[in-house]
Amino acid sequence: MKFQIEDVTVYFPYDNIYPEQYAYMVELKRALDAKGHCLLEMPTGTGKTIALLSLITSYTLSKPSNPVKLLYCTRTVHEMEKTLAELKLLHNYQLHHLGPSVRMLALGLSSRKNLCINPSVVSAENRDSVDAACRKLTASWVRAMAIENPNVRTCSFFDNYEKAASDAILPPGVYTLQDLRAFGKEKGWCPYFLARHMVQFANVVVYSYQYLLDPKVAGIISKEMQRESVVVFDEAHNIDNVCIEALSVSVRSQTLEGAMRNLNRMSQEIDRLKATDAGRLRAEYNRLVEGLAQRGNLPIGDTWFANPALPDDILKEAVPGNIRRAEHFLSVLRRLIQYFKGRLQTENVEKEGPVSFVASINTQVGIDQKMLRFCYDRLHSLMLTLEITDTDEFLHIQTICDLATLVGTYTRGFSIIIEPFDERMPHIPDPVLQLCCHDASLAIKPVFERFQSVVITSGTLSPIDLYPRLLNFNPVVSQSFTMSLTRDCICPMVLTRGSDQLPVSTKYDLRSDPGVEKNYGKLLLEMVSVVPDGIVCFFVSYSYMDGIVNSWHESGILKEIMQHKLVFIETQDVVETTLALDNYRRACDCGRGAVFFSVARGKVAEGIDFDRHYGRLVIMFGVPFQYTLSRILLARLEYLRETFQIKEGDFLTFDALRQAAQCVGRVIRSKADYGMMIFADKRYSRHDKRSKLPGWILSHLRDAHLNLSTDMAVHIAREFLRKMAQPYDKTGAMGKKTLLSQEDLQKTGNGIGEMLF
Amino acid sequence: MLRKETNGEERRLNRDEEDEEEEENDRGHDAWERTYADERSWEALQEDESGLLRPIDNKTLYHAQYRRRLRTATAARIQKGLIRYLYIVIDLSRAATETDYKPNRMVVVARQVEAFIREFFDQNPLSQIGLLTLKDGVAHCLTELGGSPESHIKALMGKLVCSGDASLQNGLDLVHSLLNQIPSYGHREVLMLYSALSTCDPGDIMETIQKCKSSKIRCSVIGLSAELYICKYLCLETGGSYSVSLDEPHLKELVLEHAPPPPAIAEFAISNLIKMGFPQRAAEGVISICSCHKEAKVGGGYTCPRCKARVCELPTECCICGLTLVSSPHLARSYHHLFPITPFDDVAVSSDPHKVPKNCFGCQQSLLAPGKRLLFLLYVIMIRDE
């Protein structure tokens, strides 16, 4: 269908559109018109992605003189593929209606691990080793050597791609990663480098958050992007954490030992080079004297890492004299590592700011701030000169230089925390030195500045006014949409009391109370006997889950649960968890029924859907607050209070509730689906907690369901499940219209936007 | 009479069970608590626009009746299987002791099955029913396929005890082995009344479902509490219907929906000639040995036209020669499924009292009391059917 939104003709590949999708597009269009940033919250299962894609591409089509580029960021490769598949559908529709003139180029970009087609490279087990294996075959000096010596192995795909030179382009179309690999195989070109090259010319690029937010990567991939781009961060409820992680480094004693090994190897290399090819070292020295930026004038196969600091903060000057010579630089690094080693031997927890940390480095080992700042670039240059290709071996020294550069560059928003042991296991010494970033706005600032529109969207962005403060920007539109439903297919409940009317909570003082544990167990036991197929339970932490499962086991509750459903548990081991999930799904499929115990903030809570019969009920045991005694969190809270005037309590509640909303949101992925959500903690009934849940959950949370005991909840569950099992009318013929056709839109015109709100 | 007795027995039995349960569990629902936790009678009330209370459902009731009429109209001229071999599978697992239906699920199900069996033979005199129960993880055959409602009901009422888990797969396997033997002109069907929310199976149930699908067994399930994925899948694969009951009246409605014959599966609907006998009713006062009860009886009964054996009731299969015995009204009654009468037009009561006939044409009852109209129409349909 196609329809007008103000002056833009929108091409939408389906015959019907949900009213909230239409409203979403209207708001998005306004943000694009204003060339500003926006925050949009819309529940999952309402077709956010297609609404976004179809509006932005249609917007480009309607303004041919000033085309905008779409940079679409997803969290996982799976989401990337889904987005591109939707885009393909949309593109075919547009081609069908407008003819070949609207051809566009859209592609996904991912790491070598996902794009490589060279069988000997892609078989390596992790991302870093794939990268290193690729470099071994494609680095410029390797290829130079291969010309002289035919025994040196190179990658034929890369060679072909190089040979084709400017002819190596992708014809317009939509390419998923799969398509890129197929295309590369057909032509014999390397899909990874081809995609990297084509990103500059593409109309739509779909890639991961890191390509924009992590300065180490963004410097290489995204620096050529034009200002007239729309950046979309999908599923962005955790974007502040991504930003912070991009600028945080942690160093353990293993890292230091590894770095030492790296240094030894590098000094051997230098000695060897001195004996054989001293000219190369001298050339490097000269280059550094002249202050030539390393990036930019190197062959593309070699640009493999960029500065961890943000582009604006990098000094545009020559490398300081005392680390220009390779030996000197190595000795500086050696001293730095010695210093870190000394710091790690502490018995107490230490916390200090970057300024005093740098000062103490300066006094103790005589490395000043400027030298620290250049560590990363200098290392990079040295490794190129030494022609090191197995970069995965050198991760440790890179980490050290990372830290040095960051600590030398920033004075605010960071802190150094040294912990001699893990708080929870004080007997096992495990010293760790962490450089933590507290300010999410640092990493995302260049993105906001460089691009005209940034769209941050997710199913759970509530409270929507906190994100602009955390990320320090001014959205022109911030809007939360609800879901239009033909029937009340979600049933959130707040359970505050057990069947014995005693309150349940995971509050610190109540947490280990046997009465609470028993009541939680009874709740689950009652629920497994009335809910069919799959149930998902989220606990606040691994340790709490272990504890409560133990106590359920001892009191025999677990055994009773097992009579109704099988029990699966998420562990920290990915393989084990995957296996457990697999079997959980099988148990749901074959009718045996199953319960999955999982942890909020875990892998499962973030990325796995429990839609349809895989999750008819999700129980959130407790409020998933962060571990509030963690030094990092405390430091961040302090920073937030001082800089952004965000109260500790507010931030903690916000963070806990968005995690809870994420967890329970797993259960419903489309409008035809149905599911129940139980928030089992008395604290959820308080207004300050509850009001931070997303609007689409709140609108279904009836007042009568706010203060339930177990028996009441069981009764409600029974009734709800019976009601939902009845056949229903998908189009919503009775009164409420939830699917709009083209005529409906024309009839009401722009009135719909007002109709909804 | 018989029915009342058995019900009384059950109730006593149940009370015993409940008592035991209460002693075992420390749940301790007192009577007042039960009304609060389980019955919640206040939820059945709704307010109308002016704030007055009105009982729920009026509208949905009329709507349902209207829909049923429409459905019979659209279903006309569809080929239907008139000779049905139906197994009713009753779940007597632990879940059937739940008391969300009063007095408990098992009793309610038994009551509905009884009503269904009578209705079924009324509508499908040429068909046969068998009963299966699921409990303790195994399936038992309660009665073999047969055409006598009383014997089924008697067998069912005698075996009402619940325990253990239900196994869908074992049930289907048993049904499959039993239904595989029946002649090809008969329609194989299963109706499950499933209380449990899970199934405890020994093997891969998907294989069993495929087996049922390939032997053209139409499986329908009526759930008593919630939608279960595997049941939905089973019904979808085998072409049956899946429904979940809200309460007892709804359960009754759902069960009775299975009484009229379903549309025949096209590829399987080959016409076939079947040999049948139309026995004559024996004269009063004649003494003969009854072949079904194995004793001498006076008067009544029917005589098989082929082997001259005496049988007590029709329709049935002759115990001696295996001939299908029916009476012609039975055939006629089955026939109306193939050519249902068109639905009646809903006539609005006009303001002019002279134009509307005061009394029903068929039964001479007064039509003037509004609200009873629909009832009369249905009544008329029933009369004409017969």
TrEMBL record, chain A:
Family: Belongs to the helicase family. RAD3/XPD subfamily.
PANTHER family: DNA REPAIR DEAD HELICASE RAD3/XP-D SUBFAMILY MEMBER (PTHR11472), GENERAL TRANSCRIPTION AND DNA REPAIR FACTOR IIH HELICASE SUBUNIT XPD (PTHR11472:SF1)
Any Pfam family matching the protein: Helicase_C_2
Protein name: DNA 5'-3' helicase
Keyword list, A-Z: 4Fe-4S, ATP-binding, DNA damage, DNA repair, DNA-binding, Helicase, Hydrolase, Iron, Iron-sulfur, Isomerase, Metal-binding, Nucleotide-binding, Nucleus
Source organism superkingdom: Eukaryota
Subcellular location: Nucleus
GO terms under biological process: nucleotide-excision repair; positive regulation of mitotic recombination; transcription by RNA polymerase II
Boundaries of every Helicase ATP-binding domain copy: 7-285
Reactions performed catalytically: ATP + H2O = ADP + phosphate + H(+)
Gene Ontology molecular function: any one: damaged DNA binding
Record-level GO cellular component terms: nucleus
Cofactor: [4Fe-4S] cluster
TrEMBL record, chain B:
Cell compartment(s), UniProt: Nucleus
UniProt KW Endoplasmic reticulum keyword: no
GO molecular function annotation: zinc ion binding
Zinc finger (C4-type) in chain: 304-321
Ranges of compositional bias, category Basic and acidic residues: 1-15
Keyword Cell wall biogenesis/degradation (UniProt): no
Domain VWFA positions: 83-259
Segments of this protein annotated with the region Disordered: 1-32
InterPro entries (UniProt xref): Ssl1-like, TFIIH_SSL1/p44, VWF_A, vWFA_dom_sf
GO term, biological process aspect, one: regulation of transcription by RNA polymerase II
Keywords on record: DNA damage, DNA repair, Metal-binding, Nucleus, Transcription, Transcription regulation, Zinc, Zinc-finger
GO cellular component, as recorded: transcription factor TFIIH core complex; transcription factor TFIIH holo complex
Ranges of compositional bias, category Acidic residues: 16-25
Entry-linked PANTHER family: GENERAL TRANSCRIPTION FACTOR IIH SUBUNIT 2, GENERAL TRANSCRIPTION FACTOR IIH SUBUNIT 2-RELATED
Family the UniProt entry places it in: Belongs to the GTF2H2 family.
Listed name of the protein: General transcription factor IIH subunit
Organism: Olea europaea subsp. europaea
